[in-house]
Amino acid sequence: MSRSAAGQMRIDYGATSVITNPATQQMQLLDHIKKEFKTIPLPAAALPQLTPPGVKIPGMPTAPAQPTPPAMSVKDLGIRLIAGHEVAGKQFTLPSLTPPKPPALPQAQIPGMPKAPAIPGAPGAPPLPVKPDPSAIVSEVWTSTTLHVPVLSRITGSFGQQMCHCKNVAGGEPHPSTFQIPADYKQVGLPPPPQPPAITPPQAPQMPGFTPPQAPKAPSFTPPAPPKFPF
C-alpha cells in the first residue's frame, strides 16, 4: 500500500492494483497480466438531511426508532515498539448483540398460601464471579505514531482470531509514477448495464366496416298510352 500527501492511494495484491485519486474522484483498476485498466467514478457523498431531527411534517408517518447499539469499551494499551516502529495501542471491546427477551407471563398465585419465613442470621450466597462474554468481539490495534497507519491489528471473537501485520513500512513521499498508468496499458470500459426487454404495446382491434343502408328506390311509373279512336 502506498499513500501520498495529496491523498492518492495505491494497493497492490497479486496481479491487480487499485489506484484512487480523491482530487479527480476516480478509481482505476489495473490488470497487470492483460495490461488493461478500468476507470470507475467514486461514489458521491450522501446528501445532507433536509428535515432537522425531531421535526415532524404534518401528515407524514414518523420513522421507527433505531435500536440502541451496545456500548463499546475502549482501553488504552500505551506505547511500545513493534518491528522497530513506535506504536500506540487501543483495545476495543464490543459486547454481543443479545436479542430482546419476550415479556414474561404473569404467574398465578394461590391465595391463602403463606410465604416461608426467612431464617434469621443465615448468610447470603456469595455472588458468582463475572465470566467474560465468549461472544464478545475484542479488537486490538497498534498504530504508528509517525506514519499513522496500523502496524498490527488483532481481532478475537467466537469465530477465532484474525491478525494483520503490516511489514516493510517506510516513510517518505512515494514516487509520482506509483500513481500513474503505464503507457502500454489499454483502457477498457465496464460492461454496459443490461437493457430492459422491449415492450410492444398491443394494437387495438380493428372495427368492422360499416356500410349505411341505401334508401329504397321508388318504383318506375309509365303513364298509360291514350286510347285510339276509330275514324
Report on the structure:
A hairpin with a 2-residue loop joins strand 6 and strand 7. The mean pLDDT is 78. Among the domains are: 1-43; 71-95 and 133-166. It has strands at residues 2-3, 9-13, 16-21, 26-31, 36-41, 73-82, 85-94, 137-144, 150-157, 160-165, 186-187. The radius of gyration is 43 Å and the shape is flat. It is an all-beta fold. The protein has a six-stranded mixed β-sheet with strand order 1-2-3-4-5-11, with no helix packed on it.
**Terminal CA distance:** 143 Å
Give the helix/strand class: mainly beta
Mean of pLDDT: 78
With helices defined by DSSP (H or I, 4 residues minimum), what is the helix count?
0
**Largest sheet features:** 6 strands, mixed
Report the count of strand segments: 11
N-to-C SSE string, H for helix and E for strand: EEEEEEEEEEE
Strand order, sheet with most strands? 1-2-3-4-5-11
Any idea what the shape is?
A: flat
Task: Give me the Rg, rounded.
Answer: 43 Å
Percent of residues in helices: under 10%
Helix-strand layout with pairing:
Layout: E1 2-3, E2 9-13, E3 16-21, E4 26-31, E5 36-41, E6 73-82, E7 85-94, E8 137-144, E9 150-157, E10 160-165, E11 186-187
Parallel strand pairs: 5-11
Antiparallel strand pairs: 1-2, 2-3, 3-4, 4-5, 6-7, 7-8, 8-9, 9-10
List keywords for this structure.
single chain; 231 residues; mainly beta; 6-stranded mixed beta sheet; 5-stranded antiparallel beta sheet; 11 strands; flat
Quick rundown:
The chain is an all-beta fold and 231 residues long.
